[in-house]
Structures are given as C-alpha cells and as structure tokens.
Amino acid sequence: MRDVAVIGVGCTEFGEHWGTSFRDLFVKAGALALEDAGVTGERLDALYVGNMSAGRFVEQEHIGALIADYAGLATNNTPSTRVEAACASGGLAFRQAVIAVASGMEDVVVAAGVEKMTDVGTGASVDMLASAADREWEGFAGATFPGLYAMIANDYMHRYPLTREQLALVAVKNHENGAKNPIAQFRNRITVDTVLNSSLVADPLRLFDCSPITDGAAAVVVVPLERAREFTDSPVRVLASAQASDTIALHDRRDISTLDASVAAGKRAFTQAGLTHKDIDMLEVHDCFTIAEICAIEDLGFCKKGEAGRLTADGATALGGEIPVNTSGGLKACGHPVGATGIKQIYEIVSQLRGEAGARQVDAEIGMAHNVGGTGATVVVHILGA
Q1: Which domains does the chain show, CATH number per domain?
Q2: What is the mean pLDDT of residues 264-292?
Q3: Which of 185, 209, 268, 312 could form a disulfide with 15 if both were Cys (CB 3.0 to 4.6 A apart)?
C-alpha cells in the first residue's frame, strides 16, 4: 500500500443557491480543486463523488456519469463513481479515493461531494433525510432526524452531567467560527439566549441546535505521496482512513448515547496512524445537531463520557482552546449539504494545516475528520498531517 497525499482542495460557498444548478455546483468545486493542485482534467485517473439523494432532491440519478460529462471528462472516458452513505457520503468518497491511490490502481484522483437540497420544500427535504434512518421501523412511525437525535439528547442528559446551557454553547461556538469562514452559510454570531429562545423542534433540541438545509459542493485531489511534490510544495498526508458500521435503527443499539461506530472508527484510525489523542491538534466532527458534537468528542476518546459539555463551557474546544473543534463552523454554521459535508471537512483540515484558514487559523500539524451517516450507522474517520 502506498502513502497518499492531498495536493489540492476546492469548495463552493454553502447556502441557498437558487440560481445555480446541481451540476454547476460540482463543476465549480472541481475546477477550484484542480486549479489549486495545478492539475488538468486530462491527468485524472478517476473521480469518486459523494451524493446522498440527487434522485429525490433534483430528480437526477446516474450522478457519476453526469459529473464526468459536465466536468468535461466524458470525452476522456474517465471513470466516475457515485458513493452513497447518507450524510457520510462525502467522507466515504474520500476514503474510496484514498484506497484507489494507496492500492496502486490509480494515481491522480478527485474525491468530491455535492448536494442541492433547496429545490424542494422543507417537508419534502426532511422526509428525504429520514430515509437515511430505518424507514420501516423509524420513518413510518413518524421519527425524523431531529426526533431521533432528541432521543439521544434526552437519554444523554438523563445519564450524564450536561446542562441545556452547555448544549447551547456548542452552537454559539460554531457560529463564532462560522462568522470567520467566507464559505459558511451562517456568518452571524449568536448567544446562549438565541439558542434557548429559538423555536422548539424536538425537545430538548431547538432550531439553533440543528444544522440547516444547504446547497454546496467540495472537491479534493489525491495522489501518491511519492509524487506529491511534482504538483505542490505543501502536500497534506493522509495518515489514516477508517470506517465502521452499526445498526441503522437507533432502538437496536447497545447504547443510544454512544455511537459505537464512532468509537470503532476512531480506534482504527489511531491504530493506523500510530498516534494518540495528544497528537491531534484539531477536529472536524459531524455536528448535525449540538448533541452530536458532544457525543463525537467523547466517542472519539478525547474525554470521558459526560465531560464534553464542561470542556465546551470551559473553552477547550474553541479556536484558542486545547483541542479546537469545528473550526469551519461545523455543519451547524458552515452548513450541511449532506453529500458534500465529508469533503468540506477535509477541505477545512487541509486549509488549516497549510496555514490558509485566515481569521479562524489555529496552530495545527495534525487534524481529524469525523463524518456520520444517519444516527451513526456509518462513520468514517480520517487523520491528516502536514
């Protein structure tokens, strides 16, 4: 197996792109990544595209071929593969690209993610997202993702010392970071009162505990580490790529307050990289809801169960803290175009490790990305190093 490096990244602004099509979003992100890498389309061996549900959001299937066509790569017969794992589609697309390069099968590969979610009404979008849970045993009973994560939050708060104010501080922190991110959907700062006084969605989760519906795309270029210097003076090495699964239905879990797939994928990533938690300088975790960030910090092993709320309140996860979490603003403030989120996490970590994160820059040489599908049925974890 060959070592792998990221040599280029690109990302659109996240938000409501009423005047931009699904295909145009991807082409823009891909062009930015290729330009950053100094690579032309003719040099690409393959594309892996993370996308959850274009068939329902924009009534378009056969995404791999569509992307190759509108990226100008169909005439080269460049292989293009769609990867789907609900909200972990982007992270899994990156993993497939890494595996392809590491295996020696391919040399210059684009991993990308894209979703166009605002072309349908909110009700339809919520229903589409619910298909990432167990439709028969959860969806048909009326459970949507706010409800499922509210169950996690209620169970957690019953068993562990997490206050409602500490949970709100996750959103406050991520909006503070998002305010410094030029691609973020929400660049407004908020307060604890903003969160606590927002509309109740599913008790105890309120509107500002929830990630938004978003359009956007992101792309990265990966090559063998041994060739990375041919393209860039600042390659970022992929130190680990790990994946784990769990039951798709929340009620079948051993413990609904712990995402066992996060625990397993995190352990596998640390083993691959030969690193410990003290070596990680920053985290991009899957905060689809504020409780999800709390669980992720603990499940990945950065603190004991029940301690993440206190760490957040103490500022340990803020930009200047001991372990900055979601410097991009996370899903909460940066936005959550579900197929693109996992790639955006890689984009953020690469930007930080190259010292290109602007006002949200932290001192980091190693970063970890944590991407979740559903309520934790699929988890992908990557570790990258400068």
Answers
A1: 4-121+214-236 (3.40.47.10), 142-204+239-385 (3.40.47.10)
A2: 98
A3: 185
